[in-house]
Every structure is written in C-alpha cells, then in structure tokens.
Backbone:
C-alpha cells in the first residue's frame, strides 16, 4: 500500500473571527473545528498518516484531544510556524521519504467529503498535482488601490469568469515534487497563499477537480452559523 500523508496547518490566529481563541479551536457540536476536520480526513482509507501543525502552546492540548478520538491512522501533532507555509513545511519534514503523495487540507474546512478527497487524490496520481476548486459565480474585477481611501478601489479590468476558479483544499501533490517546490520557495524567499502556488512556480501543471460550495473555510463569525446549518442538514441526511 502506498503512503499518502495528510497535513493540516492549524497554527493560525484567526483574527478575522474576532473570537478569544483561534478559529480552528472554536467548538461545533461540542468538538473543536479541527477535530471535525480530522474526522473527515481520516474517513478516507487511502490516507495512511496525518500531521497537524499547531502553535507550540497548543501541541499538548491537541495531542490529548486526538488520543481520545482513536483515529484509524496515526495522527501526529507537530509544532507549526509563524505562517501557513512554515507550518506546512515543518510537517513536511516529518513525512517519510517513501511517501507517494502529500495532501494538504485547511484545518477549518470540516465539510469536505471522502468522495472529494478520493477524487483529488486520483487526479494527483495521474498528473502529480491537483486541487479542489469551484467556479466563480460572481463577476471578478481587477483593481488597484493606490492614492485612494482604504475602503475604495479603482477597477482596472474585468476577468472573464470562465477563466477563474476559487481554490479549495485538499490540495494533493507528488511528494518529491512538493518537496522540490518547498525547497525552491525557501531558497528564493517566496511565500505563496496556497500550496498550489508553490508548484506553479516550477511551471508544473496543476489540475482542478470540481469541489463543492459546502466545503467552506470557516473564517468569519457568519461562517459558524453556516457550519451549524450544514451540520443540521447532515443530521437530516440532506
């Protein structure tokens, strides 16, 4: 059986949530969001091991919560970094060299499905780099903000919607390619907003597998209400 390692970066502060704790540790139905997410990732039998990168002062607490879950895969909690990229990099260093693929998933996307995980893994096996994404439904404008008030921008162009997708996770990559992309970014002092951006720097194709609008990233207070709604739908089998 090939090894597929999953990495969950969970070291962010979540300042946009405006809560007294990082968003990944806010509770839904009596469990932190990160545990809901881990349950989804662990539901995929293709994944052989999971690494959660969190802040140093949260490692012991999260290790205890993970032990209580009895996940089918080994789950290791590792110290994260000051940025998402640093956290993923720290976890990547723990991934065995014989791993075939590395999957990265946001700790605050607790509604990803096993079927979505398996589809993006299958595509990554075919092309070495694949992510989930959904088409943009709104009109997308390119803007600049120079010499304007903070809450005002000047439109410089309209980007055709058929050329735009909204990136989601999981993002899955050939392990050797992923390590090469991280090493290149570190050497050049580059920070990308997602892992696919690091692969793109190598001029390697990244394929997009259709995701779902329900695969939300919990970022703002209103997202918690939506998450509770989705949990209720799932209880009803919807």
Residues:
């Amino acid at each position: 059986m090939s090894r597929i390692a999953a990495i969950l970066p969970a070291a962010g502060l979540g300042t946009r949530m405006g809560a007294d704790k990082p968003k990944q540790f806010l509770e839904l139905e009596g469990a932190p969001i990160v545990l809901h997410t881990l349950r989804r990732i662990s539901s995929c039998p293709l994944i052989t091991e999971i690494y959660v990168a969190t802040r140093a002062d949260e490692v012991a607490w999260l290790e205890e919560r993970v032990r209580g879950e009895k996940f089918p895969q080994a789950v290791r909690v590792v110290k994260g970094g000051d940025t998402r990229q640093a956290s993923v990099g720290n976890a990547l260093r723990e991934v065995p060299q014989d791993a075939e693929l590395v999957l990265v998933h946001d700790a605050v996307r607790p509604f990803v499905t096993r079927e979505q995980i398996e589809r993006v893994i299958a595509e990554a096996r075919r092309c070495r780099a694949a992510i989930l994404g959904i088409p943009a439904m709104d009109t997308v404008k390119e803007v600049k903000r120079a010499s304007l008030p903070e809450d005002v921008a000047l439109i410089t162009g309209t980007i055709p919607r058929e050329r735009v997708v909204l990136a989601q996770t999981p993002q899955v990559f050939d392990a050797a390619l992923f390590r090469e992309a991280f090493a290149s970014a570190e050497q050049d002092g580059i920070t990308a907003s997602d892992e696919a951006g690091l692969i793109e720097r190598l001029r390697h194709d990244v394929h997009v597998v259709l995701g779902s609008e329900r695969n939300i990233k919990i970022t703002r207070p209103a997202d918690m209400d939506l998450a509770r709604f989705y949990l209720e739908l799932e209880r009803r089998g919807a």
In short: The domain at 4-129+169-235 is CATH 3.90.550.10 (Spore Coat Polysaccharide Biosynthesis Protein SpsA; Chain A). The chain has a mean pLDDT of 94. The chain has seven helices and eleven strands.
